[in-house]
TrEMBL record:
InterPro entries: Kinesin-like_fam (IPR027640), Kinesin_motor_CS (IPR019821), Kinesin_motor_dom (IPR001752), Kinesin_motor_dom_sf (IPR036961), P-loop_NTPase (IPR027417)
Protein name: Kinesin-like protein
Domain Kinesin motor per the UniProt entry, residue ranges: 1-256
Example GO molecular function: microtubule binding
Gene Ontology biological-process annotations: microtubule-based movement
Start and end residues of each stretch annotated as Disordered: 260-286
Family annotation (SMART domains): KISc
Organism of provenance: Alexandrium andersonii
CC per GO annotation: kinesin complex; microtubule
Composition bias, Polar residues: 277-286
Family: Belongs to the TRAFAC class myosin-kinesin ATPase superfamily. Kinesin family.
Lineage top rank: taxon: Eukaryota
Biased composition (Basic and acidic residues): 260-274
Amino acid sequence: KTFTMEGSDDQSGLITHTLQHLFRRAAEHRQLRDEDQHDGYHRVEISVSMIEIYQEQLFDLLNPGSIDSGRLTLHNDGAESGPEVRGLHIRSPETLEEAIALYQGGTKLRRLGTSERNTRSSRSHTVFSIYVKRHVDGADEVPAVSKISLVDLAGSERQSTASDYDRARVNEACSINRSLTTLGKVVQSCIARSTSRRADADKAHVPYRDNVLTRLLSDSIGGQAKTLLVVHVTPHEEDMQESRCTLQFAANAACVQERAPPRSRDDRCHREAADGFSTTPTPCRC
């Protein structure tokens, strides 16, 4: 999973590809603004943050000084704007190279360990978020902001496997498994809510608050977000049961439906920002 997200020295991962695409589109729009003197073209700002979830605690990987001394706090559960992580450093890289350097610096601070199958095993979840803010020149409007959360989840572990290592590894495995179990419950609840024919289906309880991971991702699962899930299995016979569970989880997640957002005058602005910056040279209005 980590290879899919990070890539290697000679092969880019999803995060690098995403940053390359966004900075390329931002440069294209900057060129359009420079070539056309009329108001209406938009200015794009890209910023990033990186959070580690380790044993139910949040840590800022873009602020090295806080790893040992400070934990982030999560607030505003259920708010329309999504969860708020107080104390989180959000950096605004000027170039693609600077953005990649920030990400690579954060990965070096991530907690790693040794498992039975992997000498470089992730002991935590990480959430690398990219924020795209679009300002429309000559328009008195609130900037449209979109967020892309790229999540590298730690893998589940059998307790019998983890118990071969020290107590710290056992605690880490228990924390990882609890968070993934809660994620599965959230997916199931979202499916039940989206398939229910009851008039109050939107008010059905989804257990986002049962775990820090699902609280942090509450605006990315089963809401108005578009979610892409990549799962990994092995061809080994001894892993058949875990591979089967992984594939079942993926099949369930594919059934989660996006909820229709409430209509507002800025709907089109936000959709265009999320789709890669519309080239429409006029202010967006509904």
